[in-house]
Amino acid sequence: MRSLLRCGILVAGLACAPDPALAQGRSTDPDWPCQQRLVPKLSAGLFWSGPSVNAGEEWRKEPDVAALVERISPRRVTAAQGKEAIGAFAQQLGEDRSRRLSLAFTGLLEETNRQRTELIERIKDFARRQRELADIAARAGEELGKIPEDAGGEAAARRKDLEQRHQYVSMAFQEAQRTLRYVCEAPVQLEARLGDYARALKAALP
User: CA-CA distance, 79 to 84, in Å (whole number)?
Assistant: First the structure.
């Protein structure tokens, strides 16, 4: 019984009282559970110092540029595979080389931001579900504390049900919490890959 109550306190604490190491990541959004700082949107200036693209130009209107972006932007594509594709793309460019390479970066930035936005929302949903599990475990722990261990009849049956619910929810929370570190890496990996792509594109500029 005491171990179950301690577990309930631990679960509630993990969801509601982040340790100092996580404070920076959570400072801008209460739903952000990751140690990594939350960057909702990546800006071009962080990655691109090449030629700018006129506002009226759109990368989707260029079939070869759009094909490159669509080929190397999915999450399953590694940075090495993407850079190889960028190299092949650059080799067939003509006089408008700088413009097309800049358009390619614009497209990759847009697609990376779109994917990161989806991932960030999923992570926030994950954090909200974790808080809900913590609340359920905490309430079950409080009810358990009100029922004597030697209770009989309906009270004993209620106590057993609460113990099972408390244990199940606490285990579910802790299992999900173990995956959080890997989940939080996904947006960072996309950001790092975009940096690799940007460097490959800049290296191909005339």
Answer: 9
One-letter identity of residue 42: L
Closest CA to 134 of 170, 160, 186: 170
Task: Give the lowest-confidence range in 15-29, 65-79, 128-142.
Answer: 15-29
Residue 56, pLDDT score: 58
Give the pLDDT confidence of 82-112 residue by residue, as tens digits. 999 999 999 999 888 999 999 999 999 999 9
- The shares of helix, strand and coil residues in the chain, as percent rounded to the nearest 5, are 75, 0, 25
Number of H helices and E strands in the chain, helices first, is 6, 0
Domain count, the chain: 1
* Phi/psi of residue 36, nearest 5 degrees: -65, 140
For 115-167, the DSSP string reads: HHHHHHHHHHHHHHHHHHHHHHHHHHHHHHHHS-TT--HHHHHHHHHHHHHHH
* Residue 42: domain span: 2-203
Instruction: Answer for the pair 134, 12: CB distance below 8 angstroms, yes or no.
Output: yes
The pTM score is 0.74
Distance CA 20, CA 17 (A): 9
Give residue for tokens 């506002």.
55
Report the run of H or E that residue 181 belongs to, with start and end: helix 153-203
Question: Measured between alpha carbons, how far is 183 from 190 in angstroms, rounded to an integer?
Answer: 12
